[in-house]
Automatic annotation (TrEMBL):
Pfam families membership: RoxA-like_Cyt-c
Segments forming domain Cytochrome c: 302-410
Name of this chain's protein: Cytochrome c
Source organism: Roseateles toxinivorans
GO MF, any single term: cytochrome-c peroxidase activity
Length: 410
C-alpha cells in the first residue's frame, strides 16, 4: 500500500457525540434557565442517539441480507478487503485498533483474504455493514450481516488510505455500487443480476422492488435538510422520518410497517416493530447535519459574485431555487417537465407518490456531483449549460461559467 498518512498529533479534533452533548449543556447553562437547559440536554441526547442509529442500526434487516440474500456467505468466502473497497465500501479508521493500523501499514494484515473482511466486521469498522461474528474454537465465523443508513449516506475522508478514514455522515457514498453488491447474492436470478449490475456506482433504485420498473437515481446527501419540508427528489414526504421509514422497511428490509396509500403500498416485515420508535432520534440527527462549506480556494470569488447576479437575474434560477435553502419546496412542487432530467423512461416522478419534482436544495452542491436525480449532468457547468439550452436563456459561455462558480460557493 502506498503512502499512508501518519496518525499525526495534528489530527483535527472531531468532537464525539458525548462531547457535543457536554458542550451544549455547558453553553446553555451559561445563559438559559433550568427549562432551557433540560430541553437542550434532551435534544443533544436525541441527536447522539440518532447518530448511533444512523451508523449502526439495522432495524433487524439481517432477515433480508442474511436469511434471504445470503450475503454473509459471499462475504466470508469471496469478499477480501480490496474487493470490498472496489465496490465502494468504506472503512472507519477510528474503529481500527493500533495493531491493525500497524498491520495494514506494514503489510502483515492480508488485504487479499476474506478472513480480514470478517475481522473488520467484527471490529465494526466497515461503514454501514453490521456483522455478527461468532467465535467457535478460536475460529471466527460471520453468522449474520445487515446494513445501516450509513452504507449509502456516509463516506470517509480517505485520511488513512483511499476508502479508509474518518466518517463523514450525511455525505452520499457515490463510490458505492449497491446494485453490484446485491447481485453477488446467490439468491438473485440471472435477469435480475444483469439489471442490478447495470445501475453503476453511486446509484440505487429505491422503487425497483416495489413497482418492478428499473431506473436508478443517484444517492443524495442526507445533510442540509433543516427547514425543508419536502423530502426526496419528488417531495414524497413532509419530513425526513417519512422516507426513513420507507427505506428502513421497503429497501433495507427492516422489521416494521410502511403504508403509503398514494402508491397503494402496504409492507410489513416481521411481527415486531424495530423502526417506528427510532425515527424521531434518526430525524433529529439528520437535521443536525449541516451541508459542508466549500474548501478554501475551490472557487473564483469575483466570478461567483457575478454569477450570483445572473442566478437571480438572467438565469432565472432564483424563481425556483429561492430562500436560504435555495428551494421553493415548502411552497410548491414542479411538473415533470421542469426537471432537466426529463423526459426519461420510465419517468421517476411517475413512480413516486407526488408525480412531481422538488426544486433541489443547493447548499453544499459543490460536494456531490453528478447532478439531477439521474446524474445526467457531470459538472455544475453542465447543469447551467443544460438550463441555458433547454430554457433558451441566451447566456454566454462566460456567464455559464460564472453561475457555475456561484454554485460552487454555496
Ligand atoms: C441502498 C442505499 C440507501 C440506503 C441504505 C439508504 N438510503 Fe437514503 N436514499 C437513497 C436514495 C437512492 C435516495 C433518493 C431517493 C429519492 O429522492 O427519491 C435516498 C434518499 C434519502 C433522503 C432524502 C434526501 C433529500 O434530499 O430529500 C434521506 C434523508 C435519506 N435517504 C436518509 C436515509 C436514512 C436515514 C437511511 C436509513 C434508514 C437511508 N437513507 C438508507 C439510498 C439509500
Ligand atoms: C422551474 C424551476 C427551476 C428553475 C427555473 C431552475 N431550477 Fe434547478 N432544479 C429544479 C428542479 C425541479 C430540480 C430537480 C431536478 C431533478 O433532479 O430531476 C433542479 C435541480 C437543480 C440542480 C441539481 C442539484 C442536485 O442535487 O443534483 C442544480 C445544480 C440546479 N437545479 C441549478 C439551477 C440553476 C443554476 C438554475 C438557473 C440557470 C436553475 N437551477 C433553474 C427547478 C428549477
Amino acid at each position: 500500500m502506498k503512502h499512508i498518512a501518519s496518525e499525526s498529533t495534528a489530527r483535527p479534533h472531531r468532537p464525539s457525540a458525548l462531547g457535543v452533548v457536554l458542550a451544549t449543556v455547558v453553553a446553555v447553562s451559561a445563559c438559559g434557565g433550568a427549562d432551557d437547559r433540560a430541553d437542550a440536554v434532551a435534544q443533544a441526547a436525541l441527536v447522539a442517539q440518532g447518530q448511533q442509529i444512523f451508523r449502526h442500526d439495522t432495524f433487524g434487516d439481517e432477515v433480508q441480507w442474511t436469511d434471504t440474500l445470503r450475503l454473509h456467505e459471499v462475504i466470508a468466502t469471496a469478499v477480501d478487503p480490496l474487493t470490498a473497497l472496489s465496490v465502494g465500501l468504506k472503512v472507519d479508521s477510528e474503529a481500527l485498533p493500533p495493531a491493525v493500523v500497524e498491520g495494514i501499514r506494514n503489510g502483515s494484515v492480508d488485504l487479499h483474504s476474506p478472513a480480514t473482511t470478517v475481522a473488520l466486521l467484527k471490529l465494526n469498522a466497515v461503514v454501514g455493514v453490521k456483522g455478527t461474528v461468532e467465535t467457535l474454537n478460536g475460529v471466527d465465523r460471520l453468522a449474520r450481516v445487515g446494513i445501516t443508513c450509513a452504507l449509502c449516506h456516509s463516506t470517509v475522508d480517505n485520511s488513512f488510505a483511499p476508502g479508509i478514514g474518518r466518517r463523514l455522515d450525511g455525505w452520499a457514498n457515490r463510490d458505492l455500487n449497491p446494485g453490484a453488491i446485491i447481485a453477488l447474492s446467490p439468491a438473485v436470478d440471472a435477469a435480475t443480476k444483469s439489471a442490478l449490475n447495470a445501475w453503476g456506482a453511486g446509484r440505487f433504485d429505491p422503487r425497483h422492488n416495489v413497482d418492478g420498473l428499473n431506473k436508478p437515481v443517484v444517492i443524495p446527501p442526507a445533510y442540509g435538510l433543516e427547514g425543508i419540508h419536502r423530502i426526496t427528489v419528488t417531495g414524497d414526504g413532509d419530513e425526513i422520518a417519512y422516507w426513513n421509514r420507507y427505506v428502513a422497511v421497503a429497501e433495507m428490509g427492516g422489521l416494521g410497517t410502511m403504508s403509503e396509500p398514494r402508491l397503494n403500498l402496504n409492507i410489513t416485515h416481521g411481527t415486531q416493530d424495530l423502526v417506528s420508535a427510532k425515527l424521531p432520534a434518526l430525524q433529529a440527527y439528520q437535521l443536525s447535519l449541516k451541508a459542508p462549506t466549500p474548501p478554501a480556494g475551490s472557487f473564483d470569488a469575483p466570478a461567483a459574485a457575478r454569477g450570483k447576479l445572473l442566478f437571480e437575474g438572467a438565469g432565472q434560477c432564483a424563481s425556483c431555487h429561492s430562500g436560504a435553502t435555495f428551494t421553493d419546496a415548502n411552497l410548491r412542487l414542479h411538473p415533470p417537465a421542469d426537471s432537466m432530467a426529463e423526459p426519461e423512461s420510465p419517468s421517476y416522478a411517475s413512480r413516486s407518490a407526488t408525480k412531481q419534482y422538488r426544486t433541489s436544495p443547493l447548499k453544499g452542491v459543490w460536494q456531490h456531483a453528478p447532478y439531477f436525480h439521474d446524474g445526467s449532468a457531470a459538472t455544475l457547468e453542465d447543469v447551467v449549460q443544460t438550463y441555458n439550452t433547454r430554457r433558451s436563456l441566451g447566456l454566454t459561455s462566460q456567464q455559464v461559467i460564472e453561475i457555475a462558480q456561484y454554485l460552487k460557493s454555496l
